[in-house]
């Protein structure tokens, strides 16, 4: 009988926690009354009968007030200011009720008035004190756990306070030991017992004295320039570091130590993310029927999410990826406008199917995001690139015009400028088709993207997977550069182009300077809490169709401003629709000839700048990158260059 009792003791304690807590607090109230009586009567106990008579009444009244204000639980490890305020409320309320009961219900007028005040003061002190002592004891135990990782925080603001509190509460294995902050007014402060010891630039001098294992960057509102500075400081001292989630998530109470992340996509841009005002989009979308092709893709799905926020009459999501559409529909079901979604499995090359969809839903606006995008894959499948990217667009434009569509937005790529790949040249021809084709009441604009961080098949997810699995990072060339944008920026550009673009416009987002893929990989390694010494970089040479650098405009294109200072527009030189239409017919004929060469020659006739023989020399063995000499690797499947979607 004794063994089961011992084994079940923890469950018994948990089950009767509130009762035990109530008994304990009743004891504190009784002690407060006795101490108040002793203080009032010079440590004597006169009128003992009166004391013993009123004690049960006081205890019951106080426990009732404590229960009412939610103080009967035993989770004292989380005691904070709100609990102290609730204790004061409970004590004041209990004192008023106790006085009223004694005086008016029981008719006791001889009870010393000073006892009311002394007992209330002592009760409040004891109830608060035991909670604070309990929390301090638990915090001390957690902070002295041997396997806790000692961390120093960059930043001593709201986010740092939340992180320190979270580490204390959760027992996460992190032990904050100090903070650094560039605000001199915070020097010497303590955040939940953690001191602010100096400035960010002095980080190195504190690492050894505090035996720091890792650094947490607790400045979620930091700009890209500030984040770059923090990264450089941490990288300079050679210590692992991580960043905290966005401030909006911290305020929403969604922060936990499991959410400390190695990198945000915005951290990799090396510039401030573009802020584009989209309020005008609502006027153009609200009450209209909108179609998105390639709706299950990275860009297409984000366009759908944004469009639903602007109250369309219906949103027609078209994609040949049935599984992708299934998941998109499940996501939209949770949206307030999710019932307006219409999901059609269709190949954009199927004109009969398109005619059926346009006839049924008559969209006023079309966002065309369906296309083949992977450069090396399209070099091996030139005919399919032409069929899917060029002739599918021609058919889609025809069906949209017949259905009375008013606006058509094509998603293009910076690879369309002086193209060296089948994917790039097909995108350029798509731009020419949209620009040269007669309007006939349908406004058509193109949008040139840089590489979209975080999209399917893009560089970042592959890099992160290789880092997590401790595999070599495969990069095509140490000097390859790309323009980068986030999915949010890309979709904002599409929607803004839909609002401000005029017929035949090609709109381009200001994306700053190009970023070396190698630099991006190094930043990702550092933000993942690792050192470059921990990873291997394998350079395999440029693949067919790839260039060292991309461009945003042709030399002959006139660059003009738009209503948005971050978006530029161009139209470029055009020979007219009649000539382009004839060339497209010839291209269709060339596709009936075996092999890709006749198709490539015809593509070059349409776009003279197209260079489909790669003149770049692949990187040779033993290339030196910084202090690292990297052997040339065999060709791998996870090669990091770029992706337009």
Largest sheet: 9 strands, mixed
State the shape.
elongated
What is the CA-atom radius of gyration, in angstroms?
A: 34 Å
Count of helical stretches: 22
How much β-strand is present in the residues?
5-15%
Give the helix proportion (percent range): 40-55%
Helix and strand content put the structural class at alpha/beta
Contiguous uncertain segments of 5+ residues: 1-16, 247-263, 614-645
Task: Write up this protein.
There is one protein chain. This protein is of the alpha/beta class and 645 residues long. The strands form 6 sheets. Strands 9-8-7-10-11-12-17-21-20 form a 9-stranded mixed β-sheet, sandwiched between helices. It has a 6-stranded mixed β-sheet with strand order 3-4-2-1-5-6, with helices on both faces. The chain has a two-stranded parallel ribbon with strand order 13-16. The longest helix has 31 residues, at 113-143. The radius of gyration is 34 Å and the shape is elongated. The relative contact order is 0.08. Mean pLDDT is 81; it is low at 1-16, 247-263 and 614-645.
